[in-house]
Amino acid sequence: MLTIRLFRIGRKNQPAFKIVVIDKRRSSTRGRFVEEVGVYNPLNKQRNLKGDRIKYWISQGAQPSPTVHNMLVTDKVIEGKKIAKHKLVPAKPVEQPAKAPASEAVPAPATPENEPAQTPAEEPKPAEEAAKQP
Fold first, then answer.
1. Torsion of the alpha carbons at 106, 108, 114 and 116, rounded to the nearest 10
2. Any idea where the domains of the chain sit in the sequence?
3. pLDDT value of residue 58
4. From residue 122, how far is each of 61, 104, 107, 118, 125 by CA, in Å?
5. How far are the Cα atoms of 111, 116, 118 from residue 107, in angstroms, in the given order?
6. Which residues pair with 48 in a beta bridge?
7. b/e for 17-53, b at 16 or more Cβ within 10 A?
């Protein structure tokens, strides 16, 4: 399968790219490509694209890389929407410690000044318990 992608040329810290048609399985660092269809210089943002040759190779089944596709859409060589080049990883939700419901909340230790008045709980009378049992 053929692809249209960038082929880096230029010296260190002075990048320039050829836009080439190449077999997808081949390395992008070797000079064995099918055809050169454009040039891109990112330092001064110059692009020189051969629109008719790019359309020909796309009609033959060549797929442009996401970066090249976005260049072609910007220069109106092809129509379509731009492709998001980077896949955004959704942010992981921060897990909050589970809060205990208000009914099960553990009260703070009582201090002598803030000690609430405690009322004794009513205990069922033995006679009522006997009456409930058959």
1. 20
2. 2-74
3. 94
4. 86, 21, 22, 12, 9
5. 12, 12, 14
6. 39
7. bbbbbbeeeeeeeeeebebebbbbeeeeeeeebbeee
> Pairing state of beta strands 16-23 and 35-41?
antiparallel
| pLDDT tens digits in sequence order for the chain, 134 residues long | 899 999 999 999 999 999 999 998 888 777 789 999 999 999 999 999 999 999 999 999 999 999 999 999 999 999 999 988 776 777 777 777 766 666 665 666 666 665 566 666 666 566 655 566 66
Quick check: helix, strand or coil at residue 14? coil
Closest of 64, 4, 67, 63 to residue 33, by C-alpha: 4
The CATH superfamily label for domain 2-74 reads Ribosomal protein S16 (3.30.1320.10)
Is 0.70 topped by the overall pTM? no
110's tokens: 């009582």
Residue 54 buriedness (CB in 10 A; 0-12 / 13-18 / 19+): buried
